[in-house]
Design goal:
It contains 17 helices and 16 strands. The chain has 455 residues and is an alpha+beta fold. Helix 5 packs parallel to helix 7.
Length: 455
């Protein structure tokens, strides 16, 4: 079954524009068996050049249903069908974006009649709908209106069906699951129902056991990558074991990282084996050289030395170190970034005062290094981080008290005052460890828009 679609919109970019008209003809491979056509109120002004092209103006859509009012009908009429459109990526992207704004993931296989026409009826100068229909003798009743263009696409589609001798149509169907191989007995509708939102997800095997826990700003997109037909032996083994996926929305990346860390330690999933003990195996180390200068170095954590801050990777540790070198005018050589005999590069451009060649007094340089080290720790012993929540009305809160991580929670600011003692009551207690402090410190360095409450 096919759902042949055409849309009219306020512009060409799905991420910024809106739908003004929808036409859908359901085709069973022989004839039209159902249809749905409606104007849509885009809840914004239609540009004049769009009105000149389509004939749809602001008065026409003023009392038309808004997209959320027709969304259910679109879901129902396209369910289980391949979406067909001329330049399908355009129409499909608009539908996905409109549904995404409603918090719903719209996912259908789709077929582009432009691309299929190039294969089955080659040789034409233009494959635009108007020119192609003119060449094939297809009359369009109502050009640049959804119903007229969709009806013309139906006639074109039927011609393509007649000329398809080598099953090119089936081979031309695309989906969100390109390069994806689902395990046998896996219901892909599980993936279709996943949100494109921030949170953590759980991969389950046949008996429901959690075999992997991950975090993503787009849960659905990230889960799909686990089914991609690539990866090492362990990745393929995990993919083949997946039978179900569950998730928990967090509203923002900080909560997702904290919850992921906590859940991995709690459940110790089979395929998170590398993360069972700690998520952060690298860090920045402090020492003193033979001349008395305090040196810093990014490296792997060993039993013989404890870092002043931990990181997820060596590159991340170096990134943190480079930011402190820049901010506190530290020496690249004494921070272990360059193993050189003479002055560092920053000295040549006046960003290093010469500690690398003994020019800057030890006491003055070390004072800046200690300030840099202090900046890696919390500025306050007791504080809360207030960030975005899982809905527009909700906020999240993370609590650190006496330098110890207590946990996180959610609240509605319309009903709960943003005061430390009150917000502490919404906290769900979580485990304190060096991993969560690394997550929080890193967030405080990178994120400046969250509200910090101290007490």
């Amino acid at each position: 079954m096919f759902a042949i679609i055409d849309l009219e919109t306020t512009g060409g970019m799905a991420a910024h524009e809106k739908i003004t008209e929808v036409a859908i003809y359901v085709h069973d491979g022989e004839k039209i068996v159902d249809e749905f056509t409606t104007l849509v109120n885009p809840e914004r002004t239609i540009p004049n050049f769009i009105t000149r092209l389509t004939g749809i103006d602001n008065d026409m859509v003023r009392h038309a249903p808004k997209f959320y009012e027709v969304a259910k009908k679109i879901v129902e009429i396209t369910e289980g069908k391949t979406v067909v459109a001329h330049n399908a990526q355009f129409d499909y992207s608009f539908l996905r974006e409109e549904f995404r704004s409603l918090g719903y993931t719209f996912s259908r296989d789709y077929l582009c009649t432009v691309k299929l026409s190039r294969k089955l009826i080659p040789g034409y100068r233009s494959y635009s709908l108007g020119n192609l229909c003119k060449s094939l003798g297809i009359r369009i009743e109502g050009r640049h209106r959804a119903a007229g263009d969709a009806a013309a696409t139906v006639k074109l589609f039927e011609i393509l069906l007649q000329r398809d001798q080598n099953d090119l149509l089936r081979k031309s169907i695309r989906s969100d699951y390109l390069n994806v191989r689902f395990p046998e007995n896996f219901d892909r509708k599980i993936v279709e129902k996943l949100p494109e939102s921030t949170g953590i997800y759980y991969l389950h095997n046949e008996d429901g056991t959690i075999i992997y826990i991950g975090k993503s700003n787009n849960i659905r997109k990230r889960v799909i990558t686990h089914f991609a037909n690539k990866g090492n032996h362990k990745a393929i083994e995990m993919r083949n074991a997946i039978r179900d996926v569950s998730f928990e929305l967090t509203g923002n990346e900080l909560i997702a990282l904290l919850l992921e860390s906590d859940e991995i330690k709690k459940f110790q999933p089979l395929f998170n084996r590398a993360l069972r003990n700690t998520l952060f195996n690298y860090g920045i180390f402090q020492s003193v050289n033979k001349d008395g200068y305090i040196t810093l170095k990014a490296g792997k954590i060993l039993k013989t030395a404890q870092p002043i801050i931990t990181s997820h990777s060596l590159d991340e540790a170096k990134e943190i170190l480079e930011s402190k070198i820049s901010k506190f005018k530290l020496c690249q050589k004494l921070c272990g970034l360059y193993d050189i005999e003479y002055a560092c590069f920053h000295h040549s451009i006046n960003q290093c005062n010469g500690a690398c060649i003994g020019k800057e007094p030890v006491e003055i340089y070390n004072e800046r290094v200690l300030k840099a080290i202090d900046s890696l720790d919390y500025k306050h012993r007791n504080f809360l981080i207030v960030g975005s929540g899982r809905t527009e009305e909700e906020r999240s809160v993370v609590t650190v008290e006496n330098g110890k991580y207590l946990g996180f929670g959610f609240f509605n600011p319309d009903y709960v005052q943003q005061e430390a003692e009150i917000l502490k009551d919404v906290i769900s207690s979580k485990q304190d460890n060096r991993d969560v402090h690394r997550i929080i410190r890193r967030h405080l360095i990178q994120n400046k828009q969250d509200k910090i409450l101290t007490y």
